[in-house]
Amino acid sequence: MTLDKLELVCVGCRAVYAPPRLHCDHCSGLLRSQYAEQTFDPADRTGLFAFQDWLPPAACADIPAGAVVYTSQGLAERLQMENLAIAFSGYAPKLGALNPTGTFKDFEATPSILYYRERGVESLILASAGNTARAFAYAAVQLDFHVIIVVPERALERLWIPCEATEAVRLIVLDGCDDYATAIRAAGHIGDVLGIPNEGGARNVARRDGMSTAMLEYAKQTGALPGHYVQAIGSGTGAIASWEAAQRLLAAGVGTELPRLHLSQNAPFTPIHDAWARGIRIDPDRDPEDQQRRIDEIDALVLANRMPPYDVAGGVRDALSSTDGHTYAITNDEARAAGALFEETEHIPIGPAASVATASLIQALQDGRIALDDPVLLHITGNGEALLRRDFDLHQIEPTWRVRPEDLTEATIETARDRLVRSP
Ligand SMILES: *Cc1c(COP(=O)(O)O)cnc(C)c1O
């Protein structure tokens, strides 16, 4: 037994490990945090560090990240709903939502860096299609922690942060590449050659537990669990995290039943929806051209993930089964209409991903899957950059190394080593 605040338990085979760790030795299951403190007793502060008992790091940081949960008036009235709560995880000062890069990726970055740093890790490498890169870059600058971030060229134009980048952040741009899955593989390869640990994506408990704080904030506000949780997903990490939060809350005596998950993707790129609806596995390498053509058509690019943690124990499929969940394929037109309705009724513009989630709520009401008086938590996972741009100077992150994915070899990575690692 460890005296630590948490242990990691494999959801697949119940093996127990000391943190930090990403994989079980015996099976492919996700590792989940099991906290010594099992009562739900949020601290008297705003933001995600109110839930520090259920976050992996021992320390807090002064970063204004966290979901703001409020009762909807405008949208609820329009949809004739009696009990609609919104978790707003973007940047909207009039709501008190101050997430520095405008999405719920801000909940993942700071806890992850603190968690690894406290356990002796000095550098991390990660891949991102955009929003994760911004959140980790910002947190790395604030905490002066060295990160290497690998992005497809296509993500480069959106890589701004609301402060100046420092040499804590080393950005690798994959030239001629618009594929997130390639960036994930490249980050794995580069990390192996340089000897820098991978942050871990959905397998990183600090990321999931950071994301779980939207559900915890709902419980803090209402003392209960919602009947339904509605979110747009790419990897599904946020959905797994909300399911895990609900399980912790139930065990702590908050609520009586797990919320039903309503998870949506942007058609025509809907691998999780397809797998769930047809009861099949996800094959990230099936017909790559067809997948790319579909990705090129969707508005909500942050939802385009070909390798989600779906089939593993504790992954998205288990989250859907255990909550009697449902998935949705939302077209661009449906999402745009829902985004416009949200802006008209709640007076805040939201991004394409949150518009997909809003459209799925509308569909669930139409199909009778959610009743008008059910308590619902709609997660607005991010909004556009307009309000951030109004309030901050946004600084582009400059690439440290540009390389074509096909040129990544041990030798070329070695030639870039000095630029990528941090000198002691
Ligand atoms: C990353 C992201 C999502 C999808 O989250 P997953 O955890 O990958 O499913 C949804 N909305 C926004 C704004 C995001 O940045």
- Say what the CATH topology of the largest domain is: Rossmann fold
Enumerate how many helices there are, as a single number: 14
Gap between N and C termini: 35 Å
Task: Examine the secondary-structure arrangement and name the CATH architecture of the largest domain.
Answer: 3-Layer(aba) Sandwich
The gist of it:
With about 425 residues, the chain is α/β, with parallel strands linked by helices.
Kindly describe this structure.
This protein is an alpha/beta fold. The chain folds into 2 domains: 68-103 and 206-387, Rossmann fold, CATH 3.40.50; 122-196 and 394-420, Rossmann fold (3-Layer(aba) Sandwich), CATH 3.40.50. The protein is built from 14 helices and 17 strands. The strands form 5 sheets. Strands 4-5-15-12-13-14 form a 6-stranded mixed β-sheet, sandwiched between helices. Strands 8-9-11-17 form a 4-stranded parallel β-sheet, sandwiched between helices. Strands 2-1-3 form a 3-stranded antiparallel β-sheet, with no helix packed on it. Strand 1 (6-10) and strand 2 form a beta hairpin. The two termini are 35 Å apart. It binds pyridoxal-5'-phosphate (PLP). Residues 103, 105, 131, 232-238, 302-303, 351, 353, 381-382 line the site of pyridoxal-5'-phosphate.
How do the strands and helices of this protein lay out in sequence?
Layout: E1 6-10, E2 16-17, E3 31-35, E4 68-71, H1 74-79, E5 84-88, E6 91-92, E7 97-98, H2 106-118, E8 123-127, H3 131-143, E9 146-152, E10 160-161, E11 169-174, H4 180-194, H5 205-211, H6 213-222, E12 228-232, H7 237-251, E13 260-266, H8 271-278, H9 288-297, H10 316-322, E14 326-330, H11 332-346, H12 352-366, E15 376-380, H13 386-391, E16 395-396, E17 401-403, H14 410-420
Bound molecules: pyridoxal-5'-phosphate.
